[in-house]
Amino acid sequence: MQVVETITEMKRLRRQLPEPFGFVPTMGYLHKGHISLVRYARKENASVVASIFVNPTQFGPSEDFEDYPRDTKRDLAMLEEAKTDVVFIPPATEMYPERFSSWVEVGKLTERLEGNARPTHFRGVTTICTKLFNIVEPTKAYFGQKDAQQALVIKKMVADLNMNLEIVMCPTVREPDGLAMSSRHIYLSKEQRQAAVSLYEAIQLAEELWSEGERDAEHLRQVVTSHIQQQPLAEIEYVSVADTETLEELKTATSSGLLSLVVRFGKTRLLDNTILK
Ligand code: PAF
């Protein structure tokens, strides 16, 4: 496994490695969810590149950029074990040199759900992904369903801007009790971690109702909300049942719907979702 820090070196290596080329962008502090993306990429490609870059532009001013957990040594060991060929790990000055001033914005889709709660977040994500795609030039890039809106936004950007790659959304990887894996679990106290399992329980309740034929989106939202509200440590930010492409809130989820939710435990925001179909 080769570890490179500069754009020039990454581009040089890119020309030497065999196609097709799978890419897994990350912000590090890896868990099994990230590694499952690397494994999907490994199965479908001749070469696999991962990046580790805690992207400052996708954090709001009061968010956890400075405190975001980092452990590069452990990340590199995990990527090596998963048979990654190249890890691109640039310093911030490489990605955002002085006087950097160009941005990629996707529009409507980024104003809903996470975009509503974090107004500048997606602009940072789409800009850094565009830069990484231009540097790495992957055949396919892999994203987790846990951040379903992020995957949808990036798919839309790739389609709208005729970018030459395919975006693959891979299933959410869960802890044994069902909690969706996240680098931010490190912030949770023991009590918060125990209470956090209510997110998955609520999702399962909605999935059960859906399989019995429930299509009233408001009822699904209410069932999820009241289950999570039983946990005094949980503070619900939103529960949404939205169109799987436009992310507009639904009244009736006729044939499908993206059920997504964000719940705060203290300062930690946890996301989860399921696609009802
Ligand atoms: O999902 C993430 O870890 C980040 O948003 C990404 C896609 C690596 C861009 O910084």
Structure description:
By secondary structure, the protein is α/β, with parallel strands linked by helices. The chain folds into two domains: 2-170, HUPs (Rossmann fold, 3-Layer(aba) Sandwich); 183-276, Pantoate--beta-alanine Ligase, Chain: A,domain 2 (2-Layer Sandwich). Helices cover 38% and strands 20% of the residues. A six-stranded parallel β-sheet has the order 1-4-3-2-5-6, with helices on both faces. A three-stranded antiparallel β-sheet has the order 7-8-9, with helices on one face. α2 (32-44) links the parallel β2 and β3. α6 (121-136) crosses α7 and α9 packs antiparallel against α10. The longest helix is centred in the middle third of the chain and has 16 residues, at 121-136. The N and C termini lie far apart (40 Å). 36% of the residues are buried. The mean pLDDT is 97. Residues 25-27, 55, 58, 125, 128-129, 147, 150 line the site of pantoate (PAF).
